[in-house]
């Protein structure tokens, strides 16, 4: 189960295979829209036992993902060394959000309480979120003190289902039908 994080870095993408023979690689971007990863100047590359700065000097959308060129990598063999590495983003470079907006990373680990007539019921904690296309979905796992041991998928629809989020208290209150 994930806990709220104050890590200085957040995953922004992952490098897949090579693209062509001139050092380009395919990446899966976790930014929304996915091309936003190309706008960040403070990227890092995390391998098994290391972390190093990453400079992208070219990139574009390609199919369902992106292809990028890593500065100084000009052939397929060199590019292949980056396969499977995670692209990290310095959290301090993330744009400030407006009132009532949250990054997913801020929601992970928060307790989810269901509004029940006359009381609140703890149903679990946010483990991660999914992008389903129609709306985001919180995956809520049971925790110590929760009403049962059921994993729940709860649509992240502020106003309709999500009634209140308080990062300082570490809680999300929902109005949701419990089975």
Name some characteristics of this structure.
mainly beta; 7-stranded antiparallel sheet; 6-stranded mixed sheet
Summarize the structure in words.
β3 and β4 form a beta hairpin. The protein is mainly β and 179 residues long. The strands form two sheets. A seven-stranded antiparallel sheet has the order 4-3-7-1-2-6-5. Residues 1-5 have low confidence and may be disordered. The chain has helices at 76-80, 104-107; strands spanning 9-19, 24-29, 43-46, 51-54, 56-62, 65-70, 86-90, 111-116, 119-131, 136-141, 152-155, 162-166, 171-174. The protein has two domains: 9-93, Elongation Factor Tu (Ef-tu), domain 3 (Beta Barrel); 104-174, PRC-barrel domain (SH3 type barrels, Roll).
Query: What name goes with the CATH superfamily of the largest domain?
Result: RimM
Percent helix? under 10%
Oligomer: single chain
Task: Count every beta strand, where a strand is a DSSP E run of 2 or more residues.
Answer: 13
Order of strands in the sheet with most strands: 4-3-7-1-2-6-5
Extract low-pLDDT stretches. 1-5
Count helical runs.
2
The major beta sheet can be summarized as: 7 strands, antiparallel
Gap from first CA to last CA: 23 Å
Percent of residues in beta strands?
over 45%
Shape: elongated
